[in-house]
Design goal:
alpha/beta; TIM Barrel; eight-stranded parallel barrel; binds SN-glycerol-1-phosphate
Length: 249
């Protein structure tokens, strides 16, 4: 297993480069929209594609990843909602442990049962402390994971959780308000968490504007993930990418 993608992410962080990841939910995209999204993303210099969803009911994941790989060189990182959302065609896998929850299955149980075939896949595995933050409305991920998100105003809980994740040896922290969240994660929470951890911080959930994406980067996010908003309007990719990358010198 290489650390190619993780090295790119950590180098970005040490050079204070902010990155943009477009999230593709294989259930919600058809071929034409996927091709259009890829073309816009290449032009907009998107840094990563994340592929996955909290609930994927079709079997198109493999084909979606293959299509992205065929059409561009943007790295494809799996962001699986369950252990069956794996394909060796991707560049890396976010190996998520739901550290904000107390559901043992998502902290370690599913990892144990899926470990042999993940190892066999040859994918680069990046361990991630995944933290759900209340986004104002129940999301698919909060329902499916059967776990309580961290209240949006409890910065101290988020901070202690992220610190614990880092000290346990996880390589990334991903704070997520959940896909389609009404309220994105506050800048004050992002700021507090980012000031107290050294590992890269990914922020997603409910980000719908270039302004919000930029604000979150200024607060301390290293990678911004946007799914829903660009699914509805792929042309937003350009504006969000420009806003994030305008902070890079
Ligand atoms: C969800 O963080 C991602 O897990 C992206 O959320 O779809 O709301 O952009 P959105």
């Amino acid at each position: 297993m290489t650390n190619k993608i993780y090295d790119i992410i950590t180098q970005g962080k040490s050079n204070s480069k902010k990155a943009f990841a477009v999230l593709i939910d294989p259930d919600k995209i058809n071929d034409a929209t996927l091709n259009q999204t890829i073309a816009i993303a290449v032009k907009a210099k998107v840094d990563y594609f994340f592929v996955g969803g909290s609930l994927v009911v079709t079997d198109t994941l493999d084909a979606v990843v293959a299509s992205i790989k065929k059409q561009c060189s943007i790295p494809v990182i799996l962001f699986p909602g369950s252990p069956d959302q794996i394909t060796p065609k991707a560049d890396a896998l976010l190996y998520l442990s739901l550290i904000s929850g107390r559901n043992a299955e998502l902290l370690i149980g599913q990892h144990v049962t899926s470990a042999p075939f993940i190892k066999k896949s040859g994918l680069e595995v990046i361990s991630v402390g995944y933290m759900l933050i209340d986004g104002g409305t129940p999301t698919t991920v909060s329902y499916i994971s059967n776990s309580n998100p961290i209240p949006s105003n409890k910065n101290d809980i988020a901070l202690c959780t992220a610190m614990a994740g880092e000290m346990l040896g996880l390589k990334l922290i991903y704070m997520d308000a959940g896909s389609g969240a009404q309220k994105a994660i506050s800048s004050s929470m992002i700021q507090q968490v980012s000031q107290h951890i050294k590992i890269p911080l990914i922020i997603g959930g409910g980000i719908t504007t270039p302004e919000k994406a930029k604000e979150n980067c200024i607060a301390g996010a290293d990678i911004i993930v946007v799914g829903n908003a660009v699914e509805k309007d792929p042309s937003l990719i350009q504006a969000i990418s420009e806003a994030i990358h305008s902070l890079n010198h």
